[in-house]
Amino acid sequence: HDLPHLSLCVSATDFEQAAKAVLPHKSYIYASTSANTGLSLKGNLDDWGRIHFRPRVMRNVGDVDPRCRILGHESPYPFYMSPMGTMGAIHAGAEPEMYKGAVRKGIHAVVSTASTKSSEQIMQRYVEEQESMKRASPTVLFYQYYMPVDRTKAIALMGIVKKCGYKGLWITVDTPVLGKRTADRYLQAEEAFAVGLEESASSWETGGDNAFAPAMGGRPVQGQLSPHTTWEDLVWIRKEWDGPIVLKGIQCAEDAKLAMEYGCDGILLSNHGGRQLHTAPSALMTLCEIRTYCPEVLKKLEVFVDGGLRDGNDVLKALCLGAKAVGVGRPFLYALGAYGSKGVERCVDVLAEELQTGMRLLGITSLDQCRPSLVNASRLLNE
Ligand code: FNR
């Protein structure tokens, strides 16, 4: 195989090359694709580098404590696993293999509605793994919710999620329709061309996430939120779901404020890994906007960010600007594809080591010391 030895993966970006070398082309495209000309994804990756630290020195950083709490659940690090659908296309062990890595390293994860395995199967395997670890503060799974169009089905799904023991509902609100996934379009066009069709039969409206419908055992792929959803729906959702609610995919200060007014427990600033709206803002830009226009949101809600995070140091930047924790997506998916749960564990270790070294070099010993004066965001804001 062309697969490098796992020890050669020393940064979160190394897993992509490894995955590319071993995954079927179609699977790699599924993981890596982004919207339109790729500017949303590029912005996510680049904006972390536009924030600079303002480190303090001589602060006795012998011992550092990188623990935090996510929706009340203790986490060893302020990052968690982002929800990603159809993991069966990436690894034969699918979601259970991914969450095995998460449990072993003690980090929390959000499970996608569009998973290959059912939410019951995923939780059952998770609990088995969990029990073998015997942790004092166990890790948890949250549930990423694409709301079905039909309200009866929507309520039934919430019932299942609750019964399974998922600890919070993360409603994805940036996907009323799937974005234009350009690499998927090329793939569809090539496949159609190869069999002599003018244009792919699979419609452009459904987009690329449906390319894996057969891998889902013929189940309908719920790869999007009901496009009819409005803010008012939060009122009845709140009656049906008594656990925490996080809106995933908030992209401006006005909507952050609305989420607060509608009583959400958290918001996740995200542009879906650059897979939805063309030239959407990065989570860091939205976070800065919130700091300016409605800073009260940062006090009242748990604010999470995701998109393009590839280095443990970057987690600290988000926390200094007021985020509670950061979601990591593709690096874990590539690690899973190339090395299974061992790769996922290694990816957690890589990020955790960078984070702890970063804390020391920044001059802090616990995460409650993260504050705006430790970063300079002027390049991000003025460029
Ligand atoms: C996603 N994402 C996603 N989000 C969601 O709410 N439901 C889902 O089913 C999926 N599926 C999915 C599949 C794949 C292959 C990717 C790469 C992403 C978005 C995900 O939760 C997260 O917002 C981004 O992946 C974060 O960006 P990075 O870390 O991948 O750059």
UniProtKB/TrEMBL annotation:
KW Hydrolase (keyword) present: no
**Which keywords label this protein?**
Heme, Iron, Metal-binding, Oxidoreductase
- Name the species this protein comes from: Ampelomyces quisqualis (Powdery mildew agent)
Any GO molecular function: metal ion binding
Q: Which residues cross the membrane?
A: none
Q: Which family does it belong to?
A: Belongs to the cytochrome b5 family.
Q: What is this protein called?
A: L-lactate dehydrogenase
Keyword Magnesium listed: no
As cofactor, the record names: FMN
Q: Which residues form the FMN hydroxy acid dehydrogenase domain?
A: 4-380
Question: Where in the full protein does the shown chain start and end, and how long is the full protein?
Answer: 103 to 485 of 498
